[in-house]
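HUMAN:
Sorry, I am quite new to this. Are you able to go through these amino acid letters and fold codes? The numbers rather puzzle me.
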Amino acid sequence: MISEYERLQREREERRLQQRTNPKGTISVGVDATDLFDRYDEDFEEVPGGGFPHIEINKMHISQSIEAPLTNSDTAVLSGSLSTHNGNGGGNINMTVRRVTSAQGWGEVEFGAGDILGPLIGLKVFRNLTPRCFLTAQCGLQFSPRGVRPSCSLMMARHLDQNTMGYLQWRWGSNSAMTTSLVRDTKSSHFTLALQLGVPHSYLMMSYQYKFQDEDQTKVKGSVKTGWFGTVVEYGAERKISRHSVLSATVSMGIPQGVTLKIKLVRASQTYLFPVHLTDQLLPSAVFYATVGPLLVYMAVHRLIIIPYTQAQKEQELELQRKSSATDIAKKKQEAESAVTRSKRKPRSSMSLCLCSAWSKTLNSSSLRPLRCAVCLHMNSFFYVQAGLPGFYDPCVGEEKSLKLLYQFRGVMHQVISADTEPLRIPKQSHRIESES
């Protein structure tokens, strides 16, 4: 009990620290694997090692942020990011101070600096207008060698119903635009319709995503995005591989983007993204390998590494639990034997129900362990295996098990097998053992 209390106390402290700092991180590694499918045979003889496809990392992005509560209403956020693309890159660092003014809104001031764009000063305000409508306003000044670049944006959102949101956004600055969008999100689907009019980009975009989830928390998603920039079809799967980790793979194909495989791992508040660009064209072979390859790799890793590792961890925890509870089990065994001895001395009527023997069978072992029970119960009584019934004790704490029970009623033997967590009602006619002729 002391060790369990200490473990819960440590978990509580870790959750409290997580809530106070709220660390978030993203690592994105772009891989250029177009040489696997877009190859030119006439160049192989001129380039040394040209017979092997050339795969390279062409871009990377790393960002991290943490929060530091200053007062009950003030919070400081420190964030930074680094990006590279084809050998060129840069980074910036930002500090934001946010104040909650009331239950209806908050405001924040941002200060930033980078090695490319220079210092940044920004102001952002959030306000609930009605219970179903809110407004966000943002303005900033970006200092660069070419002068000061002001920017401003205004967004209004409204809940149209329980699953539908409407957005209207206006941006002014280097990319001025007016955008309106409609988003509907349910357990089985996600639909987005957006229209943007701006300089230099204007488009009409529609996206539909179907979500399927099974009992193992595996989600299958598919979406279609179309607009003036082209059409993109995406499909993929997402699966929870541990308590805090989610792994997903998505195949994206379109014109003129080509085929890209996106692998994402989310571990708590950390995100790792690996977009692998396979080809600039729509090749059936690239689509096939992008679909089948990750599935085969996951099945191999799951069967050869994940399953043996989790089983070994579970067996190790059970062994430690057996050692720590060995003394307690021996004590309960002695108490059960004493209860059996006392119950045997009590007189029984012909209408009484007598438990002759009870055996526990674990799911990880074929061996049976006696529960030392020979107590008498009144007819039509209920009991649970772990309810502290006199004469019973748990010989395998922490393991999933079933109960095999042999009892006598009105001089006739009965037998039943029940799961550990299910209630058992005895006697019943279906438990009766037919005598051999």
Remarks:
- The longest strand covers residues 88-102.
- The two ends are 53 Å apart (CA to CA).
